Amino acid sequence: MLDISIDNLRKAFFNAGYITDEDVIITVFLSLKLKKPLLVEGAPGVGKTELAKVLSQVLDADLIRLQCYEGLDENKALYEWNYQRQLLKIQISKETACSEDLEQNLFSLEYLLERPLLKAIQADKQVVLLIDEVDKTDEEFEAFLFEVLSDFQVSVPELGTITARQIPVVILTSNNERELSDGLKRRCAYLYLDYPTVEREIAIIRAKIPAVGEKLSLEVARAVSLIRDIQEIKKKPSIAETLDWVRAILALDQDRLNPAAIEQTMALLLKTKADLVIFDKNIGSGRLVEYARTEK
After folding, report:
1. Which of the ends of the chain has fewer CB neighbours closer than 10 A, N or C?
2. pLDDT tens digits along 145-199
3. What CA dihedral angle connects 264, 268, 272 and 278, to 10 degrees?
4. Spatial distance between the Cα atoms of 160 and 175, rounded to a whole number of angstroms
């Protein structure tokens, strides 16, 4: 287990290839020290989920992920009974005329299917619990989640109260699709992630793709920054898509941006027909190369 300090976290994140600024490191440190869940908000693709993955690596802890979606309820997030096994047990008991206390046996841990929340609470070793895109759930589920995160215990009517063996490190992410409740926010440390600056994106590219040249990494970072600034583009390029774009350009044996390579690979950066049309209308491949190569 990592000795938690700001300096150790900074070094561990850098060694894991997660390039970020001091504010992020300090907020993560405080969340760990205060044992508070960390709510990370920001646009899709800025590295929210990756933060949780890297933190699990840094802490040498298993990552348990609850992917949120509209209609998610307690059963899908917490536990379900294994109805198939229960029915099979009932059938076997009838055939063998077993006199055991069938009802009590059917609702034991043996027949309980742990979903992410219960799995994290039941873990013998501390885990990182990622509650991804919590803003996609409704207010009722959010209230339930707030209760679980407040006490780190859950009630199973047939078994009683199950208390956490180890308090998990909790990361919640939100794309700001809806406003989260004040109650949930009060329970958490808060972090907002934005798209990286050109300088930081260059560092990310160089860290993730060591084979890339200095000029190409600079030109790509400038080009992506310009594209993200186009208001009309709906799906801004994520950091992961920037990296895919670089790999595609390298696969074409190009070490600089040029109009032909941009036209051949732009679909790896912009993923809708409408955004591709907007790019051509507002910038186009030629102007993008000119901008990316302009000395600042």
Report:
1. C
2. 888 888 888 777 677 778 888 899 999 999 988 899 888 898 899 999 999 999 9
3. -60
4. 35
